[in-house]
Amino acid sequence: MNLGKGHIEIAGVAKSYDGFTYAVHGVNLKIPDGAYCCILGPSGCGKTTILRMVAGHEDPTVGEILIGGENVVGLPPVERRTAMMFQSYALFPHLTVRDNIAFALRVRGLSKTERYAKTDAMIEKVRMTEFSDRLPAQLSGGQQQRVALARAAITEPRVLLLDEPLSALDEHLRIRMRAELRRMQRELGITFVHVTHTQLEAIALADMVVVMENGKIKQSGPAREIYAAPKDRYVAEFLGGQNVLSGKVGKINGTRAMIASPEIAGIQIPMHAGARLEAGQAIDIAVRRDDVELFREDTALSDQDMASVPATILGIEYQGNFVKVMLDAAGEAEFVAYVPERRFFENPFKVGDSVLAAWLIDRAHLLA
Amino acid sequence: MSLARVSDVVATSVSARRSRAIAPTSGRRPWTFYVLAILFTLYLLALYGPMACIYILSLQDLRGGLVFPIKGLSLHWFVDLFTQVRTGDVQGSFERSFKLALVVTVLTVVVSFLAGLGFRKRFAGDTVVFYMMIGSLVAPGLVLGIGVGLIFNAVGIDASLFTSALGAQLSWTLPFGVLVMFAVMSRFDHAWEEAARDLGASPWQTIRLVVIPVLAPGIVAVALFGFTLSYDEFARTLQTAGSLNTLPLEIWSMTLNITSPALYALGTVTTIVSFLVIGASLGTIAFMQKRREARAPGQQGGAA
Predict the structure, then answer these.
(1) DSSP H helices in B23-58
(2) Is B296 in Cβ contact with A138 (below 8 Å)?
(3) Nearest CA to CA, how far is A221 from chain B (Å)?
(4) pTM summary value
(5) Could you give phi then psi for residue B58, rounded to 5 degrees?
(6) Does A322 score more than 70 pLDDT?
(7) Backbone phi, psi, residue A50, to 5°
(8) Domains defined along chain B, listed by start
(9) Of A49, A232, B38, B213, whose Cβ has the fewest other Cβ atoms within 10 Å?
(10) ipTM over 0.90
(11) Per-residue pLDDT tens over the stretch B164-208
(12) Would an 8 Å CB–CB cutoff place A71 in contact with chain B?
């Protein structure tokens, strides 16, 4: 096997703290060397447990964890050559920025001159030189994050594990710091595994997104694939940006099937190659919010390739580059259309208007 | 905007908000302020009045008596205290008390720190241990002291300062120290230990380089408690000290047979020692914080 040194493989891993309930269960995952991987899921889904098991702060109850092809279960973090960035950064409050970053070198027994020489280069890298004599309490959130990153990176790990690294920052800073994380990952050229519950953060950063629910992996793959082609209702709803409709398959007609459920009767759905549907089968389909077009209710849709449902406008939110229109449609709890800003204001709708929400049939996506 | 200006702006806006909060109407203080100020003054008088009487009366001259009014002003009774043998073994008892308090302090700090580390995680019987500790804290000291004295007597060991008295005092200072340690530990973030481990520190390095330095001010506080509780201890020591008195016991016996302001002079001196110890402890804590700040010049805040 020719695996890169930062290649991670999690094989059949389960973790139970009490012997009865499992925090994670049946997890199989491969993360390529040098990838930026985001593990995404709501709190309590087991994502942090996976991270801590890779980091060596927890041991799996069953299963193996391989880094660079070798089983690391039971090894301390140093021997795994992983480093972790903690959620609240866990900077040592009594040490200056320089001493915090130099800590790993100090416990390895490097002399003061040796470790400060290395440390100062790292401080330079995270652009904290002018703050190197400050204490963590004298830094802003973004600066603390940089110090935490530098402190973890100074050990020259092959894998850096980040536990909700941006959650302590305000909205504005979060967007700036996530760009910095990505920059650092490119500069260091090592594998980053980043745990988050924010889908925007995940898809903005990651080469690879792993979506979790209740201790299991729901779907993993490139960010665009996860966002545009979610496998099931959970992933579609968690990632957002999609309207999910439920129904029963009615008549099947070549490459298209008709939905027979009362709320969305008459909707056609695409049957891609390999999709096997039977009449009467319950299915979910996803329609991207930005694929939904709105028409006045009396519009006669002549386009044979469009599907539409009648809807009432519940709310309108101006978002700057688009307008978010919340609809009561198809019996779903949430049905939203993202209308381009210019298009919306050419002929604006009002709350309470009855409309037709329509989309190109082939853009709809079949969920498992 | 420069850093200094940012902090100026922040400072002024904060102070503006503060003054608004205290005085909603144009700078005049509400009547409640004066009522509370008087109440607080009375409280301070009640706290320090009795002690102040002793200090004042200790400064009388040769004609001085044990009650007001004051007769003259001199350091006569302080001189008397250290020259006259008949006033009692002040110096000897002070030395004994001081040494005993030092031993108690060291033991209290070590045991409290280890207990603090131990109680970070739950273990079998932890509640029992905790309540037994509290039990020893609330037990009537005099009775406990008599009990310890009786046991030593029954076993046939002579009661003495560094055996029975030490044990009796520890039954009081240890629970106190452990409780203080718990309060200190509750603000300790376990992620610090995990981070140290992640960075390759051994358990011992983690304790030496992270746990002890972070907890240092709290450890000094535990030491301060241990010292002052032992130095002041009377009830538990009375029946356990053996043939040689500690300072509180000596003062107590002096009250029975001395009728001069030398007694008050002694009170003043011991209070000064107490305050010196407290001052030294607080000074140590302040020094530790100063040193940290000195290594980290520059003001708060700044750009991200």
Answers:
(1) 31-57
(2) yes
(3) 29
(4) 0.77
(5) -75, -15
(6) yes
(7) -60, -45
(8) 88-292 (1.10.3720.10)
(9) B38
(10) no
(11) 889 999 998 999 999 999 998 888 888 999 999 999 999 999 999
(12) no
